[in-house]
Design a protein that fits this description.
This is Amino acid adenylation domain-containing protein. By secondary structure, the protein is an alpha/beta fold. About 35% of the residues lie in helices and about 20% in strands. Strand 19 (about 385-395) and strand 20 (about 405-410) form a beta hairpin. The relative contact order is 0.06.
Length: about 1000
């Protein structure tokens, strides 16, 4: 192994006049880079720098940073990258911890230096570099086991910990990259990561080792899709070694939506930082290019940037949700270890222990932490220095030898690619004078991890007080985006904070940052929307270009804002706020909507029957054992209960460590009894291959069941498409793998009548009507409904492979016919919120609508009857009430129960329910009503007549006063509707 300097000197000798670094329009050749770094090295040696001493670099990402790195190594020093955007206290701690008597900075940052360093510190300004004499220096005493750098990661004591990395690790990594990635001096490599983040090692040293050009992307360009892509195209970037997975997601979607061809010169892309989903990887390959080599990278700072690397194939299996992180790289040996300290079997989850040429020498000035995380290798004492790093990451080794990341073992998490020790944040929160105790947990929203902080105090503390204190010591990505002050921290039986309980508690969004420049409204529409934002968010200094979710907005705030705007701007919807985010964009939509002609509602109904008409010619096998997903949900639990009543064995797939408890709680809530002995609970996750089980367990499960009822889905109206696809499409494909193992299984897929309703609303019903199979290319705007329709087609297409499959489009499921009982989250249900609004407001719009509401016990009976039927004649069923009543009839039934609800024309109704005279509760309910979840004119009738006929269902529940009274009485019993509102 050559040292870093020997390799660099060889590059200078071969490619001296080639461009080494480009930053904007500035360039520097390898000869010039050599000369400039020599000047720094000479300066440091003249200032008395001894071999192995630390030198801090306090610079923005720039050409000067790379010059400084080389100069420090040439002088025998160890470089310490600081980020000027991080808090003063954090950088000051690092300078003191490393005892850096030399700091390299620039004039623009000089004012900050006085707060960071002592008076006897040597400060080298890069602007003065040109005044230093040109020197030719030979440095021959460097060795591969010399320290190269120290990078600080989050620490459990409240202070970051410095990871000591030797040249050996850098050299080992570069030898792999240059050989396997085929990097040459003709490549142009993008430098993306900040230098305080170890991903910078990949791009910087790969360039310096190969003679390639390192392009330093501007900070503004690297944070915007358009800027990032323009750099790739303009500069002819050929290698992008490592970009954060979250940003990569944005790039892929941006390119895919616009059909861009900006990656034509790129030959390699690497991503790192978060779990890479199979959907995203497949989308990259299909939309950006199969010719590009695409790598999923993994590695802790403690083992020199990366230790595994998985090259994503062009034909990545559709069943893959979590893309593997790869196999052991050269110079690395990985072990998956269980709690007993033994090597795990294939597909068994354990902690990843790493032996590597790149293993750190430990943490600077932190022997206790070093000794706990760096141990002697109990498996192979003679390789890579005989030491191991215990990563704290839970993984499993797959049958093909690759490793799949599962989760963190402790409270260390990655947020946007940054490794964070939650204990450090908690320590800093506890240091705030008024805070008594603080706990931080992770919340996953639409697939992204965010931090949620809870604290106790003797006085009420405003959130901005917490945030401003944390900003003094923590970078922005370590500050919780949600906060809540509570009376006491809950504790688990172990005596530790009950984090699981806190994860379930809601907290409030905090304002992290606003635009530097406040853009005032330019027209009346922007001014009106701005006033609504200010009133609801309680903020003044916001402008029309601020992102709602950056300044404290969330779904409940959106409803409150809409309640103030709906009367004037009726076309605005909840969905618009999620998609458009700024006042400027919302105002543009309002102006565009005003130009569209309003289509008059045609007062005629369309019967949406069970197309495609797919007949079954075979006799189905008798069913004894049924697997049910979604069994802790409203429909799934009633289906499982009905199967038990029919004497069937039931297997429930439920995710989470507390799967059995969740099933028990569900059974107690709905049926007030213990879980039947006929029920078996399997702890599985639909988003994982083999449902997160071992392959042999998965195969055994497949051979033990006769039928599957797939009832699990994400049924929210708003969210990221990728998230819906993962749950509604990928989850369906994953559970169907059981049928691939055992083709005798009959697959029953639960869908929604929203599929046919949205097709009708968008003028596409004729594309499905009359068909005998699901047509290609059907789509609707709602991402939820669209993903359910994609899943339907995928399932029904399995008939062509000889599989027995059935689809059930469920209608609006409401309380049981026997007693009116509904699910616990009644306040989130659109139908019940509509009822409450009409009852509280004493008015309802005069609309033409056949109201779809189907008792849950009747719906589950329909599904189970079909599942157990051996002579099932058709594959698509509509599970909705066959005799829906008109909206006018529903109001009459409610008035029979003692309410006083008057039907009024739509315009008068809208004006009334959003007027100043009604309560805020009514206004908030009204927003969802006017957003499409309430009473509206509708042509759609979900025709289930044929479903009832072929399944021979004679006892159809009556939608009469008695039943509607049961629904209302349940709503009263749980406090959703107050008894006093009845006349």
């Amino acid at each position: 192994m050559n040292t870093i300097l020997k390799e660099f000197n060889g590059v200078v000798a071969r490619f001296g006049e080639c461009v080494a670094i480009k930053e904007g329009k500035k360039t520097i050749t390898y000869n010039e880079l050599n000369e400039e770094s020599n000047k720094i090295a000479n300066y440091l040696k003249e200032k008395g720098l001894q071999k192995g001493e630390f030198v801090s670099i306090y610079l923005k990402r720039s050409m000067e940073t790379v010059i400084s790195i080389l100069g420090i190594i040439k002088a025998g020093g160890v470089y310490v990258p600081l980020d000027p955007t991080h808090p003063v206290e954090r950088n000051k701690y690092i300078i003191n911890d490393t005892k850096s008597t030399n700091v390299i900075t620039s004039e623009s940052l000089l004012d900050n230096i006085t707060d960071l360093v002592a008076g006897n510190t040597n400060v080298l300004l890069m602007e003065n570099l040109k005044t230093l004499e040109k020197v030719d220096i030979e440095f021959t005493d460097d060795a591969i086991d010399d320290l190269a750098y120290v990078i600080y990661t989050s620490g459990t004591t409240g202070n970051p910990k410095g990871t000591l990395i030797r040249q050996r690790g850098v050299i080992n990594l570069m030898e792999y990259m240059l050989k396997d990635w085929c990097i040459t001096n003709e490549d142009i490599i993008m430098q993306f990561a900040t230098y305080s983040f170890d991903a910078s090692i990949l791009d910087t040293f790969a360039s310096l080792y190969s003679g390639a050009t390192l392009y330093l992307i501007d900070d503004s360009e690297r944070m915007s899709e358009e800027g990032f892509l323009s750099v790739i195209q303009r500069e002819g970037i050929s290698i992008i070694p490592a970009i954060p997975t979250v940003f990569f997601n944005r790039i892929v979607n941006y390119v895919n939506e616009r059909k861009l061809n900006t990656f034509k010169n790129v030959k390699i892309v690497g991503v790192a930082g978060e779990l890479l989903t199979g959907d995203l990887a497949r989308k990259f390959k299909s939309s950006i290019g199969e010719e590009i080599r695409f790598f999923n990278l993994y590695g802790p700072t403690e083992t020199t940037a990366i230790v595994t690397c998985y090259e994503v194939p062009n034909n990545l299996d559709e069943s893959v949700f979590s893309v593997p992180i790869g196999n052991d790289l050269p110079g690395t040996k990985l072990y998956v270890v269980n709690e007993e300290g033994n090597i795990c079997a294939t597909d068994e989850v354990g902690e990843l222990w790493i032996a590597s040429e790149g293993i750190s020498l430990g943490y600077l000035n932190n022997k206790e932490k070093t000794d706990s995380e760096f141990i002697k290798n109990p498996f192979d004492e003679n390789i890579h220095g005989g030491m191991l790093y215990k990563s704290g990451d839970l993984v499993k080794r797959l049958a093909d030898g690759n490793i799949e990341f599962v989760s963190r073992k402790d409270t260390q998490v990655k947020i946007r690619g940054h490794r964070i020790e939650i204990a450090e944040i908690e320590t800093r929160m506890n240091e705030i004078a008024e805070v008594n105790d603080a706990v931080v947990v992770v919340e996953v929203i639409d697939g992204e991890k965010t931090l949620k902080g809870f604290f106790t105090a003797d006085v009420e503390l405003p959130f901005h007080h917490i945030v401003e204190n944390l900003k003094e010591t923590l970078p922005s990505y370590m500050i919780p985006t949600k906060l809540k002050q509570i009376e006491d921290i809950p504790f688990a039986p172990t005596g530790k904070a009950d984090r699981k309980k806190l994860e379930q508690l809601e907290a409030d969004q905090v304002v992290m940052h606003k635009s530097d420049i406040i853009v005032a409204p330019r027209n009346e529409v922007e001014a009106d929307i701005l006033e609504a934002w200010k009133a609801v968010l309680g903020l003044e200094d916001i402008g029309v270009t601020d992102d709602l979710f950056d300044i404290g907005g969330h779904s409940l705030k959106i409803i409150a804002i809409l309640s103030k705007l709906k009367v004037t701007y009726s076309t605005l919807s909840i969905k618009d706020f999620f998609e458009l985010k700024t006042i400027e964009n919302l105002a543009e939509k309002v102006k565009a909507d005003s130009k569209l002609a309003v289509q008059e509602f045609k007062k005629e109904f369309t019967q949406l029957t069970e197309f495609p008409k797919m007949h079954v010619n075979e006799v189905l096998p008798t069913v004894e054992t049924v697997l049910v997903t979604g069994a802790t949900g409203f429909l799934g639990s009633h289906i499982a209960n009905k199967l038990v009543e029919e004497g069937k064995r039931v297997v429930l797939v439920v995710r989470g460590d507390n799967a059995n408890q969740r099933v028990n709680d569900t059974v107690q809530y709905f049926f007030n009894k213990e879980v039947s002995s006929q029920i078996e609970v399997v702890n599985g996750n639909l988003t994982e291959k083999y449902l997160g089980l071992k392959e042999e367990e998965f195969n055994e499960l497949a051979l033990s069941i006769d039928a599957i009822i797939h009832s699990a889905a994400d049924v929210r109206h708003f969210g990221d498409r990728e998230h819906f696809e993962k749950i509604n499409v990928q989850g369906t494909q994953n559970i169907f793998e059981l049928v691939e193992v055992n083709p005798k299984i009959v697959f029953h897929h639960i869908s929604t009548v929203g599929v046919v309703e949205d097709l009708l609303a968008e003028g596409k019903w004729s594309l499905l009507e009359g068909t005998t199979e699901m047509p290609d290319g059907l789509s609707v705007e709602s991402v939820y409904t669209d993903t359910k329709m994609i899943a339907e087609k995928w399932v029904l297409d399995k008939v062509k492979e000889g599989k027995q499959v059935f689809v059930y489009r469920m209608g609006n499921l409401v309380g049981r016919y026997c007693d009116g009982k509904f699910q616990s989250n009644i306040d989130a249900n659109a139908f019940y919120r509509m009822l409450k609004l009409m009852i509280l407001g004493n008015k309802a719009p005069n609309v033409l609508w056949k109201v779809d509401f189907t008792p849950i016990d009747f719906a589950s009976e329909v599904v189970v009857k079909s599942v157990l039927k051996t002579d099932n004649p058709q594959r698509v069923y509509h599970v909705s009430h066959p005799n829906p009543i008109t909206f006018e009839k529903l109001i009459a039934e409610l008035n029979e129960l003692g309410f006083d609800i008057t039907l009024v024309e739509r315009d008068a109704y809208n004006s009334y329910i959003l007027s100043e005279g009604v309560s805020e509760e009514v206004k908030n309910l009204a927003v969802a009503q006017l957003d499409g979840d309430g009473a509206n004119d509708s042509n759609a009738v979900y025709d289930s007549t044929n479903t009832m006929k072929v399944l021979e269902l004679a006892n159809i529940p009556a939608l009469d006063t008695e039943y509607i009274g049961k629904l209302i009485n349940h709503a009263i019993s749980v406090g959703f509707i107050k008894e006093a509102v009845m006349a």
